[in-house]
Amino acid sequence: MGAEFVQLSLTPLVIAVLAAVTCAMPGNFLILRRQALIGDAISHVVLPGIVVGFIITGSVTTWPMMLGAGAAALIAVAMIEAIKRLGKIEPGAAMGVAFTAMFAAGVLLLEQSNTASVHLDVEHALFGNLESLIWFDGLGWASLLDPSALAQLPPELFRMASVAVIMIIATILFWRPLVMATFDEAFAASVGIPVNLLSLMLVVFAAIAAVAAFDAVGSIIVIAMFICPPATARLLTDRMGVQVLISALVAAVCAVVGYVVAGYAPLWLGFDNSVSASGMIATVSGVALGLAVAFGPRRRQVAG
Amino acid sequence: MEAFVAALTFSAGYNAALVVIGATLFGAAAAASGTFLVLRRQALMTDAIAHATLPGLAIAFMVMVAAGFDGRNLLGLLIGSAISALIGVVAVDVIVKRTRLMEDAAIGAVLSVFFGFGVVLLTIVQSMSAGRQAGLEGFLLGSTAGMLRADAMLIAVSAAVVGVLLFVLRRPLTLVAFDPQYAAGQGVKVRLMDLVATAMVLAVTVIGLKLVGLILVVALLIIPPVAARFWTNDISKVLFLSALFGGSSGYVGAALSASAPALPTGSLVVLSAFAIFVVSLVFSTQRGVLAALLRRRALAVRVHRRQGLLALAAGEPIYDAMTIKVLRRDGVIRPDGVMTDNGRAAVAEIRRDELRWSMAPSVLGDDAVPAQRDALTPADEAFTPDQIALIDAEAQRLAVV
After folding, report:
1. Most A CBs within 10 Å: which of B98, B110, B123, B127, as the mutation test of the A interface?
2. Would you say the C-alpha torsion A75, A81, A87, A91 has a positive or negative sign?
3. pLDDT band (50, 70, 90) for residue A143
4. Biggest alpha carbon distance in chain B?
């Protein structure tokens, strides 16, 4: 736990934890509203978004890509709604039509725009580049108190941290109406809560979380963290507040354990290379859910 | 363009022709098996199946290399991916049956965890000395470039087998998809057919991995049946149309991709299917957006025509622009708003119609009058000639008195 840890692992670890918690927040509501797969759809359309952002601006800098991804997420949500309403098609099929078509278009654009020369590829969008978020100036724990070294922290850290704060504040701010609308939409509407607006806002916040997280950690973590920690928490408690807290805790623990296992376990086992941290974090969250499915005290629907 | 036509007519080389044939057969088989899935509202189950193939691909590669074979053997990779996809299906089933989590959460969890685990294994494969040229990434988005002849054959033959099986079993599968209890009453083995349907979906997903890739293969199972649903409500026609749409998507997409470099097959097949979907959404005579707009427009014209004539009959002025437009086009009023001879006849007609409707309940009894009078249908269409004669006779009598 020395200087090398601070330089190589501290920032990715913090970013992974922030990303996991950010995604778990809206995920709690999505899984209860049968919208769990909206996260899946959104993270697939991130690819066409970043490609279009790149083609329009010609640069692989962050903001055009983030804006492109955000726009693509909103277009996808609008498209799913339109297909559902116009064609009277069930939500799952409408999602399947919309996100695969957009993803296919993204792959085609990527191949056509010949971006092979710059680092922009499908695998990057899917797997992220957690391991590359190195803090070059972080020469030891003392660097945490050194302003000039702190200024050199990867910008992803601040972006992820601000989105995480926004997400937590939003969850607290809209807590009561959101919980009411999630458990009993008709009642919520009858007491004057704008349920449709709230539902749209939830999707928008999920999109913000997904877009902010994919850049640092890739789409796999996004989908896994939207669903696995909240689902695990759901099997442990009946109370919504407790569920959200547990899900955040589970998400953070999965991020830490996954990152450490990916980075160090192969070395302990005698391999030369570490494995994908994003993939390992998703795997660990699956193990957590598996344990909850097997042993969780609130596995089944409460009778009555 | 020439290259595209050459690929369409199977004259762009033997391998390219095999890929086009394979994609066509695969498209049709995937669309047909997807039809049952969409009918059962389980469209995104395919997505879980497809993503769950990744760990199997990587493990199969490692096992084959460890056993001293070529790790890239397609049959071996497909068997491995089928096994891990099967475990994924079972995992979804266990979560849904044993816990209170909803199916969508179970699907999302399995999809992301299996995929994440697959990526972990993929990084291990890449660090193996034999793994550098493994090309397992090709299964993410499909890659037909440099596909072996035997691979194309394998895909075409297995797609054909699945297609034939689906055709033979289409009746019991349809029954189970629509109404399991009725199907059981008819002597269909519901559990078995459920398994067969899932096995078919699993088989086409695995077959499609090399062609369109595991991220996009779900599109070929969902989009064609959804597009077909726009054209007809008859399930056997949906099945046929869906297979036709899927087959043409595979055919056109693969041919397009063979016609120039940097045109990935999977994307083009999916985008072809999406193009068919958009055309269906807009132009379908049954449920299409355009047909709905035209119907709405026709209804608006009828309402304005009748309301305009009623206003003329009552001697009231007309202000509504659309009403004036409709009446002018019908030749009821002149551009300056004065009624024409045709118009006077139409007004007389509408007066008589209103009188008939108002007298119908007293002459024929309340029961004979349609409960939901829409205020648009002329009386002589709503009643039989005999009834009309009765109403007119009574009107005559009242007028004389």
Report:
1. B123
2. positive
3. confident
4. 109
Q: Which of B119, B137, B265 to mutate to test the interface with A (most CBs of A within 10 A)?
A: B119
Contact A113, A51 (CB under 8 A): yes
B236 and B341 in a common domain: no
Residues B71 and B196 in one domain: yes
Quote the domain boundaries for residue B95: 2-282
State whether B114 and A234 contact (CB < 8 Å).
Answer: no
* Alpha-carbon dihedral sign for residues A85, A89, A90, A95: negative
The A residues from 23 to 42 touching B (CB cutoff 8 Å) are 31, 34-37, 39-40
Out of B109, B114, B219, the one facing A227 most closely (by C-beta) is: B109
CB contacts of A127 in chain B (<8 Å) are 119
Give start and end residues of each alpha helix (H) in A184-275.
185-190, 195-217, 219-234, 240-268
Looking at residue B372, what is its pLDDT? 54
Inter-chain CB proximity B108 and A108 less than 8 Å: no
**Shared domain check, B200 and B235:** yes
Q: Using CA atoms, how far apart are residues A3 and A9, in angstroms rounded to an integer?
A: 10
Give B30's contacts in chain A (Cβ within 8 Å). none
Cβ atoms of B244 and B232 within 8 Å: the answer is no
Count Cβ neighbours within 10 Å for each residue of B285-316 and write b for 16 or more, e otherwise: eebbbeeeeeeeeeeebebbbbbbbbbbbeee
A272: closest CA of chain B, how far (Å): 8
Same domain, B148 and B272: yes
Tens of pLDDT, residues B48-107 = 999 999 999 999 999 998 888 887 888 899 999 999 999 999 999 999 999 999 999 999
Inter-chain CB proximity A89 and B226 less than 8 Å? yes
In chain A, what residues touch B118 (CB-CB under 8 Å)? 279
A242-264 average pLDDT score: 93
Instruction: Map residue A187 onto helix, strand or coil.
Output: helix
A273 at the B interface (CB within 8 A)? yes
- ipTM exceeding 0.95, yes/no: no
Given B230, B258, B282, which residue is the final one in a domain? B282
Per-residue model confidence (pLDDT) at position A157: 87
Overall domain count for chain B: 2
Restricting to A residues 133-162, those with a Cβ less than 8 Å away from any Cβ of B are: none
- Range A3-294: architecture per CATH: Orthogonal Bundle (1.10)
For chain B, give the mean pLDDT: 86
Q: Is residue B145 domain-shared with residue B237, that is, in the same domain?
A: yes
Q: Which of B282, B316, B338 is the last residue of a domain?
A: B282
CA–CA dist B56, B76 (Å, integer):
10
Q: Do A271 and B119 touch (CB under 8 A)?
A: no
Report residue B388 as tokens.
């009309």
Put simply, whether A170 touches B (Cβ < 8 Å) is: no
pLDDT in tens, B129-168: 766 666 787 888 887 766 778 888 888 888 889 889 888 9
